[in-house]
C-alpha cells in the first residue's frame, strides 16, 4: 500500500505549511508530472505565439437551471459552426463557469442501471445529454466549467484535450490547496487517493468542444449516494473541503477555487480571458423570464420555482422552507 503525504495550507496564507495528513491508496496512479511533460511541447509552441482570446461568462455565484446552461452551450456551438460554414475566422473561444441546481445528468450511452432510484420518481431532475460518460450529479458547491473551444486553434486530439482538462484541476489542487491530485489509469477525472474530486465528460462537434468538467469544492456528497457516479462502483466521490479537513468558510473556499480554476485554465490552454457581462447575451434575462435564479450568497427568489428543485434546496438547507415568489 502506497502512502501519499499531502501538506495542507490555510486559505489566508496559501503558502504557509501546516500539519501533514495522510491518504492511503493501493491503486496504480498515473503521474501528473509525467503527463505534464508530454503537454509541454504543445504549450511551449503556443507560448511563442500570441495568446488566443477567450470570452468568459461568470455565473459562479448563481444556481443556474441545467437546461438553460445546456441550451446556451448549444447556441454558442451553433454560432461557431456557422462561422466555419461561412469560412469566417473564429476569433475567440468561450468559457462558462457556474453552479447548478441539484440535478442528475446522463451521457449519450449511459445505462440507467447506475440509477439507484426509479427515474419516474427521481429525487431531483434528470437529463440525458449528448456528452460522454455515465451518470453524475451537479449541485451547489460544485464549480462547473464549460469551455467551448475550437480545437483547430489548439490541438486536434481528443485524448490531449481530456488530459489537459484534468491537468487544470491537478494544478488547482496543487498550487492553491497543496493537495496532490492525480489521474487513475483507465479512468477519467481528477483523484485524491480513492476519491474522485473532479469529473470530466465532453462532446466535440466538428472539433468544437462543449460540456466539460465539474470540481467538487464544498459539494454535499449525499446526492451521489442515489447513483453509481460515473458507473464506478469501487471508488468514492470527495470534495476539496472534505480532503482539506479544515474548518474553512464555504464562501471563501469557493472564491479561492474559482479564482484558481480561471488562472490555471488560462495558463494551461494559453488563453487570454476576457470577462463578458451576462447581459451581453441576455443570459440573466433569459434565466429570469423563462425559469429562475438564486444568488448563492443571498438566496432570495427572483422567479418561478420548479417544485422538485425547491424541495431539494429546502432539504439541503440551501433555501428556507417558505419563500415569496410569483405563481403562474
Keywords:
328 residues; alpha/beta; 9-stranded mixed β-sheet; 3-stranded mixed β-sheet
In terms of topology, how is this protein built?
Layout (H helix, E strand, L loop, with lengths): L1 E8 L7 E9 L3 E2 L1 H16 L4 E13 L1 H20 L6 E9 L2 E4 L18 E4 L7 E3 L3 E7 L9 H20 L5 E2 L5 E3 L2 E11 L2 E9 L19 E2 L2 H5 L5 H20 L1 E5 L7 H8 L3 E2 L11 H9 L13
Parallel strand pairs: 4-5, 4-15, 6-7, 12-14
Antiparallel strand pairs: 1-2, 3-10, 4-16, 5-9, 6-8, 9-13, 11-12, 12-13
Helix pairs in contact: 1-3, 3-5
What can you see in these coordinates?
Helices cover 30% and strands 28% of the residues. It is of the alpha/beta class. The strands form four sheets. Strands 4, 5, 9, 11, 12, 13, 14, 15 and 16 form a nine-stranded mixed sheet that branches. The protein has a three-stranded mixed sheet with strand order 7-6-8, with no helix packed on it. The chain is globular, with a radius of gyration of 20 Å. Residues 1-37, 43-48, 283-311 and 313-328 have low confidence and may be disordered.
Amino acid at each position: 500500500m502506497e502512502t501519499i503525504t499531502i501538506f495542507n495550507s490555510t486559505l489566508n496564507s496559501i503558502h504557509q505549511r501546516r500539519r501533514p495528513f495522510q491518504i492511503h491508496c493501493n491503486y496504480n496512479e498515473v503521474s501528473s508530472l509525467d503527463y505534464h511533460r508530454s503537454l509541454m511541447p504543445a504549450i511551449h509552441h503556443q507560448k511563442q505565439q500570441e495568446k488566443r482570446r477567450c470570452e468568459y461568462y461568470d455565473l459562479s455565484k448563481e444556481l443556474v437551471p441545467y437546461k438553460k446552461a445546456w441550451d446556451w452551450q448549444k447556441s454558442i456551438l451553433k454560432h461557431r459552426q456557422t462561422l466555419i460554414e461561412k469560412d469566417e475566422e473564429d476569433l475567440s473561444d468561450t468559457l462558462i463557469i457556474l453552479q447548478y441546481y441539484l440535478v442528475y445528468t446522463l451521457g449519450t450511452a449511459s445505462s440507467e442501471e447506475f440509477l439507484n432510484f426509479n427515474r419516474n420518481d427521481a429525487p431531483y431532475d434528470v437529463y440525458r445529454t449528448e456528452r460522454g460518460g455515465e451518470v453524475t450529479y451537479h449541485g451547489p458547491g460544485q464549480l462547473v466549467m464549460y469551455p467551448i473551444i475550437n480545437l483547430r486553434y489548439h490541438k486536434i486530439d481528443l485524448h490531449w484535450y481530456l488530459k489537459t482538462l484534468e491537468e487544470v484541476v491537478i494544478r488547482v489542487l496543487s498550487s492553491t490547496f497543496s493537495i496532490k491530485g492525480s489521474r487513475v489509469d483507465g479512468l477519467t477525472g481528477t483523484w485524491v487517493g480513492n476519491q474522485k474530486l473532479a469529473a470530466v465528460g465532453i462532446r466535440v462537434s466538428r472539433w468544437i468542444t462543449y460540456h466539460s468538467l465539474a470540481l467538487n469544492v464544498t459539494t454535499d456528497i449525499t446526492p451521489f449516494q442515489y447513483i453509481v457516479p460515473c458507473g464506478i462502483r469501487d471508488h468514492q466521490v470527495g470534495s476539496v473541503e472534505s480532503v482539506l479537513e479544515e474548518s474553512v468558510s464555504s464562501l471563501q473556499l469557493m472564491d479561492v477555487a474559482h479564482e484558481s480554476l480561471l488562472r490555471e485554465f488560462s495558463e494551461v490552454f494559453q488563453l487570454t480571458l476576457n470577462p463578458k457581462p451576462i447581459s451581453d447575451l441576455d443570459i440573466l434575462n433569459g434565466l429570469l423570464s423563462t425559469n429562475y435564479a438564486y444568488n448563492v450568497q443571498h438566496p432570495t427568489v427572483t422567479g418561478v420555482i420548479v417544485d422538485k428543485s425547491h424541495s431539494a434546496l429546502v432539504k439541503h438547507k440551501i433555501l428556507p422552507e417558505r419563500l415569496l415568489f410569483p405563481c403562474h
